[in-house]
């Protein structure tokens, strides 16, 4: 393969080198008038990249003959042809005879006028006769010169262009000089190192064509994970590092009981409005809370009753909401509006793991999963999004500990300088909104919610009084949108997402 | 969260301090309300309009739904004033105005309360605020007047004693507020049907045999709750004595509304914070009482509890001082372990000592609380197995060059069924009762609609497109408490100029290999082992998977197969793969052939 050559471009480079060895510099148009400009340029570039030649590009305008001018060059100008015909006929010529002689009415007509003007011929009665013996056909001479040299005096060129005998064209040519590494032969270059070269050892003597390091590599047709799921992975990693167990959130349909009532959200709370929550029409109604399997020994009847009482009449030192709590409302099916419904179920399960002293083991739970809100869809709201949720159940927890934890959690994402604002949430007290100073916007933005679950919720489950439970949550989409500068949530979640966005999105590294 | 607009200069005057935007924002932040907007420098504010602040109030702070409440609580918080001592005017019981409730009201709106603000002096600002508070209470606590409705009257235009009755619509006749002509109860529905403001409350009474009315001694109608008051008794800037009627379906919220209305506006009475009560006579249910109650509640709260959760170490005295900033009256109890906390009648949000504990923390300042370690016990992290399995499949697909997508769970009924040439037999899909658009009618039972919609949105991309999703679908399931269950699926779709069946099939083979499931040939003559796959030749017993041709309308005839898996000897159909039927492509507006596969991943757990 190294020996195969003979491509046209290869020939041209050799020819250029040959020409240069005889004359330095050469003009490319002079030396290779038939070769198109592009081929010359390609050959020169190849030589120049090896420093075998240097070249400058020259642009100039050249004059080219129009078809009429070509006729003048071969037959003479109109006036000269008229003169010749008249001069040849010793007796003079009638106009009709002149036309016959020349065989072209236009030439005859234009030539007559000019010949009269030049005083070469005159009218003698009905005949035309010559006034001089010989003439100088200036136009023909000028055009001949132009045909050879492609140029002439500017005034003459301008005059001939006016007579529509010439056109001008931009012509690029090259002045080529010998370069530092000038040689008569260009060494054949290999484009790639091949297995054959390795086998034959040809790589030792081969010269390799330089790479264009400014070009991109080949498209990888790469597979890709979705950016949101990449952010999810990073969050999961943080949770695992901090000892959290993932909750079984693969349950989108919930009863009002688990989604609201267990969380001490009163039945008239606005969150339970049709405008906010998706209710399920089919299946029509949930069953009362029951054990999911034979291993589940919890007393669900008692729990159901506790929840009812704490809402309706108050219990566990709470005066309750004091409204008639309705079982029907509790058994309405909804698409969960938060994963906290699962946290509630998990904490209720935890309450079943009491030791002989009535103590349950400390626990940490998390989930990252889909939740549903009956929102009007816009750039920042979709009916579905992902909630990141964490729960820490332990003894002796304090509010300062919650803030300390949130500092650590968000710190792992590279979000620092958090501020905590008092807020209201039906199932946590105290409730703290978490704010962070956003450098780009130069203001505090809310990045999450947190709090300590209310005793009304925990004690109804049978959890010990001194067990305190932190809960915190944020959406997966919001930090992702902030991180990647996405302003429309529909560009991130749902079927309208651009696949090239998925493919090109960089790996997620919170710590970077 | 409700947003309250207040006059900025008036509020700052009331607070006795000219705040900068930043310092006011900080005050709001510390107290737990949110400055949403300040129109001072808003170029769109008309020149003749005074700058306003839009302040967001926590949804349970009904005592801050008006200018007066916000100003009062911020002043108490800043130690500028104490909590008012609201009290009932000292009037002998037989001299009280009475509101007598009849038994008939039980059919429609059983509870009522009344209160009188004597010798009140309204300004335009306080009058507007008075009207606005009613509106905010109606919208929030009263759930669009379903739970409580408030009517306010110029007491000097009507004559007590009052009655609260429920009358057949035909017996009702009065000139409603801002009207000139009398309407009858029978006309009420049609009269207000198209009224943008009042029309939305009609449903509360519609089809009721009787409508509730407040009547004065001359049996003139004062109001027809929860829709409209009478024109005759309407209050004006000149009104001196205000009679407030409140009717309800919820006793607790009625009391809250009653207390808040009078607590906020009794400050404008000649004798501030003194309210003239009304005797509510309700003999049919033994609920005769004096309203408003203005009841305070006293709690003994453990000092240790307050200190432990907040991480503080404050003395009872200092805790009491902190609580006074949050409008409580608190004093050390005779038992040093407790503080005696009196909750004012306005603080309906305080249900439990934990609410008091939060207020200690707010008064101290959340961001000043001592920090402590949250890591008291060691716990071990653990992933959910189905998610781990799902992640393995997703990652393997991405490594094989497929692109992961995340469409929505909700879709239209058509997309989930008709467009896939599938029939809804009513046993599979969970349907929604109140979607805003057809896009959210059902929870998907297949991942295909989302994948096909994603392809349709990305037709301009360079072909072929290869996409996957591993996520949940939802099925009705009568055997469980929630009557529905999720199922983890994995699906793939190939979109290109050729059908790509073998490519999708190859992806299935690849993932099965990664899940250590062998390919079982089903045909005679196919033998041996390929490098990648273990091929077992006796399909009748061996564990593994195989595919078998099916004829289902979702797919092109002869180009579809069911995917079977035998695990632990048990054979299961877990999904299908195939070239989609051209009519399916047409529905999803796809111009090139598509091959898909979709399986249930849960069998591999």
UniProtKB/TrEMBL annotation, chain A:
One GO-annotated biological process of the protein: phenylalanyl-tRNA aminoacylation
Chloroplast recorded as keyword: no
GO-annotated cellular components: cytosol; phenylalanine-tRNA ligase complex
Reaction it catalyzes: tRNA(Phe) + L-phenylalanine + ATP = L-phenylalanyl-tRNA(Phe) + AMP + diphosphate + H(+)
EC number: 6.1.1.20
Broadest EC class assigned to this enzyme: ligase
Keyword Disulfide bond: no
Domain Aminoacyl-transfer RNA synthetases class-II family profile intervals: 229-506
A single GO molecular function term of this UniProt record: phenylalanine-tRNA ligase activity
Cofactor(s) required, per the database record: Mg(2+)
Compartment(s) where it occurs, according to its Swiss-Prot or TrEMBL record: Cytoplasm
Keywords, alphabetical: Aminoacyl-tRNA synthetase, ATP-binding, Cytoplasm, Ligase, Magnesium, Metal-binding, Nucleotide-binding, Protein biosynthesis
Subunit structure: Tetramer of two alpha and two beta subunits.
Annotated family: Belongs to the class-II aminoacyl-tRNA synthetase family. Phe-tRNA synthetase alpha subunit type 2 subfamily.
Protein name, UniProt field: Phenylalanine--tRNA ligase alpha subunit
Organism, scientific name: Triangularia verruculosa
UniProtKB/TrEMBL annotation, chain B:
Catalytic class of the enzyme: ligase
Keywords for the protein's UniProt record, in alphabetical order: Aminoacyl-tRNA synthetase, ATP-binding, Cytoplasm, Ligase, Magnesium, Metal-binding, Nucleotide-binding, Protein biosynthesis
Subcellular compartments: Cytoplasm
A GO biological-process term: phenylalanyl-tRNA aminoacylation
CDD domains: PheRS_beta_core
Start and end residues of each B5 domain: 294-371
E.C. number(s) listed in UniProt: 6.1.1.20
Organism domain of life: Eukaryota
Primary site of residence: cytoplasm
UniProt KW Ligase keyword: yes
GO CC term, one of those recorded: phenylalanine-tRNA ligase complex
Catalytic activity annotation: tRNA(Phe) + L-phenylalanine + ATP = L-phenylalanyl-tRNA(Phe) + AMP + diphosphate + H(+)
UniProt GO molecular function: ATP binding; magnesium ion binding; phenylalanine-tRNA ligase activity; RNA binding
Cofactor: Mg(2+)
Keyword match Nucleotide-binding: yes
Any Pfam family matching the protein: PhetRS_B1
UniProt record similarity statement: Belongs to the phenylalanyl-tRNA synthetase beta subunit family. Type 2 subfamily.
Oligomer status and interactors: Tetramer of two alpha and two beta subunits.
Name used for this protein in its record: phenylalanine--tRNA ligase
Upper classification of the organism: Eukaryota, Fungi, Dikarya, Ascomycota, Pezizomycotina
């Amino acid at each position: 393969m190294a020996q195969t050559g003979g491509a046209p471009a290869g020939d041209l480079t050799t020819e250029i080198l040959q020409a240069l060895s005889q004359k330095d510099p050469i003009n490319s148009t002079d030396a290779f008038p038939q070769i198109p400009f592009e081929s010359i340029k390609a050959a020169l570039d190849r030589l120049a990249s090896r420093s075998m030649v240097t070249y400058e590009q020259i642009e100039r305008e050249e004059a080219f003959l129009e078809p009429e001018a070509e006729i003048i060059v071969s037959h003479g100008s109109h006036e000269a042809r008229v003169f010749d015909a008249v001069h040849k006929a010793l007796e003079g010529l009638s106009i009709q005879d002149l036309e016959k002689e020349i065989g072209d009415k236009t030439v005859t007509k234009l030539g007559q006028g000019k010949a009269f003007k030049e005083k070469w011929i005159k009218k003698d009665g009905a005949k035309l006769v010559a006034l001089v013996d010989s003439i100088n056909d200036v136009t023909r001479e000028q055009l001949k010169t132009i045909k050879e040299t492609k140029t002439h005096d500017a005034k003459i060129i301008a005059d001939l262009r006016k007579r529509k005998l010439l056109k001008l064209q931009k012509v690029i040519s090259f002045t080529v000089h010998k370069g530092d590494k000038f040689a008569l032969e260009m060494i054949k270059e290999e484009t790639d190192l091949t297995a054959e070269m390795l086998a034959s050892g040809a790589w030792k003597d081969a010269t390799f064509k330089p790479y264009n390091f400014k070009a991109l590599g080949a498209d990888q047709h790469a597979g890709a994970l979705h950016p949101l799921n990449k952010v999810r992975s990073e969050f999961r990693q943080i949770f695992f590092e901090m000892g959290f167990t993932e909750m079984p959130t693969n349950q989108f349909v919930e009863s009002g009981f688990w989604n609201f009532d267990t969380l001490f959200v009163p039945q008239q709370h606005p969150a339970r409005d049709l405008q906010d929550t998706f209710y399920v029409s089919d299946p029509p109604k949930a069953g009362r809370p029951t054990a999911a399997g034979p291993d589940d020994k919890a007393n669900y009847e008692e729990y159901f009753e506790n929840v009812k009482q704490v809402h309706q009449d108050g219990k566990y030192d709470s005066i309750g909401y004091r409204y008639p709590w309705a079982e029907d409302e509790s058994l309405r099916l909804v698409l969960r509006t938060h994963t906290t419904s699962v946290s509630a179920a998990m904490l209720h399960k935890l309450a079943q793991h009491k030791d002989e002293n009535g103590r349950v083991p400390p626990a940490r739970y998390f989930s990252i999963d889909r939740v549903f809100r009956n929102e009007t869809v816009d750039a920042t709201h979709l009916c579905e999004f992902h909630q990141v949720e964490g729960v820490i159940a332990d003894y002796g927890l304090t509010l300062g500990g919650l803030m300390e934890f949130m500092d650590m959690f968000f710190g792992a994402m590279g979000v620092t300088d958090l501020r905590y604002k008092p807020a209201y949430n039906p199932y946590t007290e105290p409730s703290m909104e978490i704010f962070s100073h956003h450098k780009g916007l130069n203001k505090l933005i809310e990045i999450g919610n947190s709090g300590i679950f209310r005793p009304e919720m925990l004690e109804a489950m049978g959890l010990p009084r001194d067990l305190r439970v932190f809960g915190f949550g944020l959406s997966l989409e919001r930090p992702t949108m902030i991180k990647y500068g996405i302003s429309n949530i529909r560009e991130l979640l749902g079927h309208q997402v651009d696949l090239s966005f998925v493919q090109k999105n960089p790996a997620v590294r919170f710590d970077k | 969260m409700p947003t309250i607009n207040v006059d900025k200069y008036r509020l700052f005057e009331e607070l006795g301090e000219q705040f900068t935007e930043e310092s006011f924002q900080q005050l709001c932040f510390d107290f737990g309300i949110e400055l949403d907007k300040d129109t001072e420098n808003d170029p769109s504010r008309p020149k003749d309009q005074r700058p306003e602040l839009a302040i967001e109030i926590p949804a349970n702070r009904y005592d801050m739904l008006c200018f007066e409440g916000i100003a009062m609580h911020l002043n108490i918080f800043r130690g500028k004033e104490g909590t008012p001592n609201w009290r009932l005017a000292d009037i002998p019981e037989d001299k009280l105005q009475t509101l007598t409730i009849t038994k008939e009201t039980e059919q429609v709106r059983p509870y009522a309360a009344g209160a009188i603000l004597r010798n009140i002096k309204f300004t335009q600002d306080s009058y507007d605020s008075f009207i606005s508070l009613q509106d905010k209470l109606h919208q929030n606590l009263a759930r669009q007047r379903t739970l409580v409705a408030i009517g306010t009257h110029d007491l000097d235009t009507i004559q007590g004693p009052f009655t609260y009755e429920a009358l057949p619509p035909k017996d009702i006749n009065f000139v409603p507020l801002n009207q000139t002509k009398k309407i009858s109860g029978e006309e009420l529905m049609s009269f207000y049907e198209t009224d943008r403001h009042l029309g939305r409350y009609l449903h509360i009474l519609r089809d009721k045999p009787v409508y509730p009315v407040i009547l004065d001694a001359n049996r003139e109608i004062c109001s027809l709750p929860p829709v409209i008051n009478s024109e005759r008794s309407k209050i004006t800037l000149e009104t001196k004595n205000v009679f407030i009627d409140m009717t309800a379906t919820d006793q607790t919220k009625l009391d809250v509304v009653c207390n808040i209305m009078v607590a906020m506006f009794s400050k404008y009475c000649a004798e501030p914070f003194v309210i003239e009560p009304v005797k509510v006579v309700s003999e049919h249910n033994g609920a005769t009482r004096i309203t408003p109650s203005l009841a305070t509640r006293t709690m003994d709260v453990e000092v240790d509890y307050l200190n432990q959760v907040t991480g503080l170490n404050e003395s009872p005295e200092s805790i009491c001082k902190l609580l006074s900033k949050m409008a409580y009256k608190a004093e050390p109890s005779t038992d040093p372990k407790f503080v005696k906390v009196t909750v004012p009648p306005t603080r309906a949000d305080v249900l439990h000592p934990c609410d008091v504990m939060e207020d200690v923390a707010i008064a101290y300042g959340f961001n000043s609380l001592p920090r402590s370690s949250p890591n008291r016990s060691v716990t071990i992290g653990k992933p959910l197995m189905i998610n781990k399995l799902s992640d393995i499949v997703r990652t393997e697909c991405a490594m094989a060059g497929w692109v992961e997508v995340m469409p929505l769970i909700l879709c239209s009924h058509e997309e989930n069924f008709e467009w896939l040439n599938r029939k809804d037999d009513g046993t599979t899909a969970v349907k929604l009762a109140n979607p805003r658009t057809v896009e959210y009618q059902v929870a998907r039972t297949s991942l295909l609609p989302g994948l096909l919609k994603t392809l349709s949105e990305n037709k301009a991309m360079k072909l072929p497109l290869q996409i996957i999703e591993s996520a949940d679908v939802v099925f009705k399931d009568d055997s469980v408490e929630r009557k529905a269950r999720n199922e983890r699926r994995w699906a793939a779709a190939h979109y290109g100029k050729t059908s790509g069946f073998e490519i999708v099939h190859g992806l299935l083979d690849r993932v099965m290999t990664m899940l250590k499931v062998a390919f079982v040939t089903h045909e005679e003559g196919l033998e041996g082992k390929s490098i990648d796959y273990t091929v077992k030749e006796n399909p009748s017993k061996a564990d593994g998977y195989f595919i078998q041709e099916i004829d289902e309308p979702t797919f092109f005839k002869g180009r579809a197969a069911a995917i079977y898996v035998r695990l632990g000897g048990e054979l299961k159909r877990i999904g299908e793969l195939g070239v989609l039927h051209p009519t399916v492509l047409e529905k999803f507006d796809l111009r090139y052939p598509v091959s898909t596969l979709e399986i249930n991943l849960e069998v591999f757990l």
